Amino acid sequence: MILFGSPQPFFDRKTSIVSKYIDELDYCEKLFNLMHDNCPGNWYLCIIDFKNSHIQILDSLRFRSLDEFRFKSVKIMVEFF
């Protein structure tokens, strides 16, 4: 599943506090982040591709009713980077 809409505004946040102190992220192409879901015991993988400006969510137990929660969680995490 790939987030709809352009994630470009999230990738343009190079002036964030994190980038001031962690310049190694400039050399990072992909970030793999394991995230916990509201569903008990369910985890999903969020892959942020900085090089191609893509965000991908991989979940073996996808519940469409939780998509909005996941999108919000991923957007918050991406804004941090």
From TrEMBL:
Fetch the InterPro entries from UniProt. Papain-like_cys_pep_sf
Q: Which domain of life is it from?
A: Eukaryota
Provide the protein name: Uncharacterized protein
Species name for this entry?
Answer: Vitis vinifera
